[in-house]
Amino acid sequence: MANTTLTASIVAKAAVRILENELVMGKLVYRGYEDEFEKKINGYEIGDTITIRKPADFTVRDGAVLAAQDVTEGKTSLTIDQRKGVDFKFTSQELTLNIGELSERVIRPAMIQLANAVDVDLMSLYKDVPNWVGTPGQTIDSFSDFSKGPERLDEIAVPQDSRNSVLSPSDHWALAGSQTALFNNSINGQAYRRGAIGMIGDVDTYMSQNVPTHVVGPLGGTPLVNGADQDVTYASVKDTGVQTLVTDGWTAAAAARVNAGDVFTINGVYDVNPVTKAVLPFLKKFTVVNAASSDGSGNATITIAPAIVASGAFQNVSAAPADNAALTFMGTASTGYRQNMVFHKNAFAMVAVPLVSPPGAVDVGRQSYKGLNVRVIPVYDGVNDVSSWRLDILYGKKTIDRRLATRLSGTA
């Protein structure tokens, strides 16, 4: 192929395809909300928002007597607020390269960095997920370890289609190593020769070095619920899904007793099946929404999710917490743990939209591919005969339904 002077559109077209290919988490979450945004021909800016409705729920009556229920629908919003980019320079001579050569030398390395930044951003949503199965600090090195994830999703009635998992390298390779002992050659051959895990228990499994490490807060003391019946109505939290929990028993006057993303249970508060409301054989898990400190008396008010709803169509616990019920946190204080996740794709969402084509900019290239959008703009330096190229993407991310995911550790 003869060399061609490369334009912004040609570079953008190559870049957006490489970016899509390099994403891991970005290809596993729900991407359908792009259609909810009005189609702006000139593109979007930071701050554009859509509203997403949460489904209603109902209780089933016994007998023939009508018992009409109010239809309560919550809503959440997804804001386009993530702007990322990569910038590089080309001489005029380099701009006559074959696009394939340029892709390998310049564009692919840049897109790998950008894809990793997007995946890191999406993986940070783990903090919204209250479920965490396994023992923090233990490696996932067997099918029985891994199966704790989809088992938890089954227990809480998460749909069995479109399930994915993303594991850290150490967990991925430990699990792949466990498959090499299997008799089935179609499985152990892939694990041994290619390090491939594939689908396990109807869950597509992926490895990413971007699996984050969560550091548990300093904790301290013996935290207890301070005051009985700290449950709420769904109607009062239908949009946020969070509430405050008043606690005491902490080490007095200590900063950041808990970190955002810490997970805990409350003694006597069990999870329930969201459909049948049957009490499940494990305690309900909650995640800390914002870091919180204790006062001089060891009291702390913690914002938690999900909110505690003890009755009605949206009941999610066996009972409201009792006064002085103990809080038990996952993991050891001030210790970091990798946050592997198993999730239905509808747990999280990403929306990528085309950036605005700025007035006065010359040769703006904007390309879309499989829901991703890349904008490329060259800026020419006539003195040095060098073109600086900026490549930008604009997107938003959101945890849509925290119930559809669980964090996963191995077992001892």
Report what the structure shows.
The chain contains six helices and 21 strands. It is of the alpha+beta class. It has a six-stranded mixed sheet with strand order 4-21-16-5-7-6. A hairpin with a 2-residue loop joins strand 18 (365-369) and strand 19. Helix 1 (8-22) packs across helix 2. The longest helix has 25 residues, at 99-123. Pfam families: P22_CoatProtein. InterPro entries: Phage_coat_Gp5. This is P22 coat-protein 5 family protein.
Unreliable parts: 183-196
Query: How many strands, what sense, and barrel or not for the largest sheet?
Result: 6 strands, mixed
How many runs of DSSP E, i.e. beta strands?
21
Tell me the domain tally: 3
User: Radius of gyration, Cα only, in angstroms?
Assistant: 25 Å
Distance between the termini: 58 Å
Main β-sheet, spatial strand arrangement: 4-21-16-5-7-6
Backbone shape? globular
Number of helices: 6
Percent of residues in helical segments? 10-25%
* Mean pLDDT across residues: 86
- Strand percent estimate: 25-35%
Structural class: alpha+beta
Oligomer: single chain
Order of helices and strands: HEEEHEHEHHEEEEHEEEEEEEEEEEE
Organism: Agaricicola taiwanensis
Pfam family, one: P22_CoatProtein
Protein name: P22 coat-protein 5 family protein
InterPro entries: Phage_coat_Gp5
